[in-house]
Every structure is written in structure tokens, then in C-alpha cells.
Amino acid sequence: MRDAEPASKAKRARHGVSTRDRLIAVALKLFTERGPDRVTTAQIADAAGINEGNLYYYFKTKQALVLVIFDRFEAEVDRLLESPRRDSADPAAYATFLREWFEIVWSYRFLYRDFMSLLATAPELRRRIRAISARLRAPVKTLMGHMRAAGLIAISDEELDALLANVWIVSTYWVVYLDVQEGVRALKKAHLEWGIKQVSSLFTPYLTPLAREWLDAQAATT
Amino acid sequence: MRDAEPASKAKRARHGVSTRDRLIAVALKLFTERGPDRVTTAQIADAAGINEGNLYYYFKTKQALVLVIFDRFEAEVDRLLESPRRDSADPAAYATFLREWFEIVWSYRFLYRDFMSLLATAPELRRRIRAISARLRAPVKTLMGHMRAAGLIAISDEELDALLANVWIVSTYWVVYLDVQEGVRALKKAHLEWGIKQVSSLFTPYLTPLAREWLDAQAATT
DNA sequence: GTCTATAATCAGATAGAC
DNA sequence: GTCTATCTGATTATAGAC
């Protein structure tokens, strides 16, 4: 229960949102825009419409604020992992999983982009981000195995391992690539689609005629 | 001539290397280890065996030090691009190109890993890193076109564009992935080979029987 | 819970002697 | 070219009134 609310009832002065939640939201926004090292507690308090001293009432350190945001990231990943569809060999299930993962990566992209800064003040994050990666990778590998067993992809064991690593790299860093190298500041639907298309294209050459038929049918329906 | 030596002869007190070069080497090392924001000028001077004040004789600002390192990165890329082999459709030429690019990316990986910190103090770097990306991408695309024309890969125009982007993402971020997510601190030959294998595996499914024969023959020779 | 001070620290940078 | 000494500014964090 790291992310528990304070015992007393939080005030909901503005927009019906508690000050604490507003601080978290504003911090995430600023961290994403400029990176956590280039955002001061004064700026966060300012953007949240409160005084700097007051911020320290909610978060005793700046690092605590970062950790709470990381907790939320973790919670969203948990929710994704607990959703029931992951045992399916249905390509549509994979597509949904991928889209939701991409939305999470987009929202919390500063965690990957500015990871080194975060490590310096909170070394535990290395372990935690690796744990998340490992937990996410397992169902993806399972799913790829199911796709192969169902005759949707034709691929050797060795190729499958390499593909998995590439899926991992592209699905994590597509957003850093767009941000840093292409200067994309705000996620438009087109960018999300671009990322999904990139990861999908990793699979394309391995698809069997069966899978291609199915995909064509899907495309015709939509 | 951003990277020009001072007019006067530099002393080569230790190891036969000028203080200026020593500072650059030490700064690169520390930036790589901890990220530029977590390294102070005092620490750089210390590691170089000189006084902090003296550092400022060589580099008026910390940012100037970063920019000189970036200049060297740029120069290495230039050297790679000016090497004569890039018009060839010979896969071996591509393999060499890839390996040299990977060594550069490894050496200067902090530029990609800590890009946001750098941007904050030197916004011009966004333009410069994008320019480098664009210049590198052109010959790779040309080369892929040649490979297709020579009947080594079978791929549609659309697939080729997606492949190019994935090649770009993997060949830039494999090193950040190893560093941040796998905790790899020092480049061993095995890691370089791993990165090369990952990028190669992006091409594998598109290779024609002709290319596979050629590769098998190569493998037999080596 | 929120504010007004203000403390404590530390990094980047400069001046001037040697 | 190199050092010692110092300044300046910014930032995290605290104390205590309201």
C-alpha cells in the first residue's frame, strides 16, 4: 500500500481532485516534458497551484514523489497482466494487449527515457523495472508459442528468441525514439498506430498463409 | 574546427597525453558510468588529476565539455560515412558497416541514454543528433535497395520502410537496453555480437535462397 | 492543510597568485 | 598551465505561524 491516501480526508478544492492527486498528475506531466532532473519542487508546487512548503507536507522528499508515480506505473502493468485474455492464441487478443501496453509506455515514458537520473536517487528502480520487464515478457513468449502451435507463425526456436528480444526493444523504445529523435511531443493516435505497426511488422514475415487469410478477413470486416 | 587544440603546445605530463585530452577521456568515462548530470566538474578534474579551477582553463563551461565530446562522436560517424564501401550490395560490406556503427554507439551511448539531460543545457543537440541519424539512414536505405536489386532479399516497399525503422530503433537502443534493463556495464565482445545478431535477425526472414546459400558458404569459410 | 520564512547544501563558475 | 580561494545562484528541505 505505498500509494495509500493520508488517513484524513483530502480536500478537493479544485476540479474535485485532491491536492495529493493533483501533485502527482502535475509532476508526471512536468517530468515527461522536461525530465525529472530539470523540474524543481518549486515548479511542481507552482503548477499545482500550491506553495512549495505545502508540497513537502504530502511528499517528504522529491524522490518519494517519483516512487509514487512508479507505483502507479507498476499498478497499471499489474492490471494489464491480470486481464484474462493472455492465454489465448487469438491474434486479436495480442493486438489488444499490445495497444494497452503501448498506452502505458507512452504515459510513463519518462521512466525509460530518463532512467539514469532516476537510478541515481532511487537505485531500487533498476530491480523494479527489470522485474516488470521479466513479468511482461513471460506472457508474450507464451502467446508467441501458442501462435506457433496454432499454425499462425512459422518460426524456429532460435528465431523466436531473437524475435522476442526485438519485440521487447521496439515496444519499449519506439516511444523514446519518437520523442528524442523525431521530436514528437504529444501522443496522437497516429503515433500509437505507428508503434503498433512497427511491432506488428516484426511478425509479418513469419505469418503463415492461414494467419494472412485471417488478417485479410479481419481487415475486410473493419 | 570546434575540437581544435589550444594555440600553445599542450603539456603531456602524464601518460604522454595532453591535459585537455585527458579531461575529455575522463569526462566521457564518467558520463557513461553515471550520466552527465550526476558527474560534477570537481569529480572530472579530480579523476583527471588536476584542480577544478584548472578545468575551467580548458573548458569555460561544463556544456563546452559535452559539446566537444559530441564533436568527436560526429567525427567518428563522418569517418564511417566517408569510408568507401557503402555503395556495395555485398552483405559483407554491410556487416562491417554495422559493426563499426555499433562500436561507436557503444562508446558514446550516454548521448542516447541521457539525451534529455543534455538537451536541457544544449538544445542544439536535438538538431545535430537528428542530422546524424538522417545521414546514416540514407546509405542504409540505399544498401537495402541494392540488396533487393541483387536478389538477396525479397521485400515489398512498405515492408522495407518498416524494416528500416526497426533496424534504426534496434541498432540505436540495443545498447541502452543492455545497459538499463540488463545491467550490462562493460562491453564484452559477446554483447557486440548480440546486438549485431539482433539486427541481422530483422533481415533473416526476408533473405532469398540465393542469399542463404551465400551466407552458408561464408559460414563454412570462417 | 496551507502558508511564509529560512536553513543547508552544493554545483558551476571566476579572480588572481604562483 | 596550474593552483587556492571565493562567489553566486539554484534547489532541496525544515520550522513554525496561521
From TrEMBL, chains A, B:
One of its GO terms (molecular function) is transcription cis-regulatory region binding. Keywords: DNA-binding. InterPro entries: DNA-bd_HTH_TetR-type_CS, Homeodomain-like_sf, HTH-type_TetR-like_transc_reg, HTH_TetR, TetR. The keyword Protein biosynthesis does not apply. It comes from Microvirga aerophila. SUPFAM superfamilies: Homeodomain-like (SSF46689). It holds the Pfam family TetR_N. Residues 17-77 form the HTH tetR-type domain. Residues 40-59 bind DNA. This is TetR family transcriptional regulator.
